[in-house]
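Figure 3 (text version): structure tokens given as input.
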């Protein structure tokens, strides 16, 4: 039976991790499109270490076969530009651009260009980075003040919005100043691609209320995310924004098998090795409780609980040892979960 609620499903493709390559990114994106997933997502960091390559796995698994030992991390916007002309239906997303680590004028132009190249199918997650960023020394390498990263992010986002909506554009902020900047093209989506603010913290909630079109946290149970989203909407209303125009998504790990116990066995190893880089979580069981791991029935129940709490989009990071196993999971998920929301 089809669910009444409008829910969309996107998947993380391997632009980092043991199976990362141009070929694997394309094959996963094309298969997701063919199976009816709504979007494909990459993630963003500019530096990446050997240690993080082993422990912070956003695609693949801890036991990926024939894994790539080099800490390859394909740059997010370039990767989506590569995909823009090769997959023609799914939306393309980044979760999330580490905003303080990018020049906002250049990033604004890249994002606008990418939105035009993909015919307005772009979603941009924005944030300040996860604990993996701290281990990678990304801010230090790029000479960005880590202690002020939240304020820098907000200033950069306001500057980028100004560029997208004005010609010429002028901006006078704490960290960014420019006058009569003539930067085109403008985004195809007006006023800009949807901005999904990543992060579960109060600062991320405030950023969503002030600047976001959507909130994309992780590590929250359905009962927690619903309460927090109400707070976000109340903040937005106090700022004079229409709270009903702000959408709620969630970033989750996924592992599906007809046998729920096997799905948990296959998924828990990757959760365990990455536990130190996951915010708020003290055990693998806690991580699994905020993931989509189990049998199709178990996952449908979890999706329903999140949907009842207001979640309208899932960005899923499947845990898989090989592209063949990933394909099996995508087919099973599409048949047993996507079909309920078609």
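Below: residues designed for each position.
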């Amino acid at each position: 039976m089809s669910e009444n609620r409008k829910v969309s499903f996107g998947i993380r493709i391997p632009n980092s991790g043991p199976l990362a390559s141009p070929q694997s990114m394309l094959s996963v994106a094309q298969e997701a499109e063919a199976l009816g997933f709504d979007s494909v997502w990459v993630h963003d960091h500019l530096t990446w270490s050997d240690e993080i390559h082993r422990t912070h796995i956003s695609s693949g698994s801890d036991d990926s076969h024939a894994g790539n030992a080099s800490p390859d991390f394909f740059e997010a916007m370039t990767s989506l530009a590569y995909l823009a002309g090769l997959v023609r239906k799914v939306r393309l997303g980044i979760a999330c651009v580490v905003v303080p680590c990018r020049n906002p004028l250049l990033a604004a132009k890249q994002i606008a260009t990418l939105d035009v190249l993909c015919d307005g199918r772009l979603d941009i997650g924005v944030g300040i980075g996860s604990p993996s960023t701290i281990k990678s020394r990304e801010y230090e390498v790029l000479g960005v003040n880590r202690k002020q990263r939240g304020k820098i992010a907000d200033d950069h986002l306001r500057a980028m919005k100004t560029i997208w909506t004005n010609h010429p554009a002028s901006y006078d902020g704490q960290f960014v100043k420019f006058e009569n900047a003539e930067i085109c093209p403008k985004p195809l989506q007006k006023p800009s691609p949807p901005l999904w603010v990543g992060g579960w913290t109060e600062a991320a909630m405030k950023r969503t209320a002030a600047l976001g079109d959507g909130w994309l946290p992780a590590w929250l149970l359905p009962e927690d995310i619903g309460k927090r989203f109400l707070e976000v909407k109340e903040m937005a209303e106090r700022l004079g924004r229409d709270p009903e125009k702000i959408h709620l998504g969630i970033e989750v790990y996924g592992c599906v098998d007809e046998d729920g116990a096997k799905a948990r066995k296959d998924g828990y190893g990757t959760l365990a090795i990455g536990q130190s880089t996951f915010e708020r979580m003290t055990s693998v069981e806690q991580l699994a409780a905020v993931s989509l791991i189990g049998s199709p029935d178990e996952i449908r129940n979890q999706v329903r609980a999140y949907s009842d709490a207001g979640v309208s989009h899932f960005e899923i990071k499947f845990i898989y040892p090989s592209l063949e196993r990933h394909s099996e999971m995508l087919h099973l998920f599409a048949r047993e979960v996507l079909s309920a929301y078609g």
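The mean pLDDT is 94.
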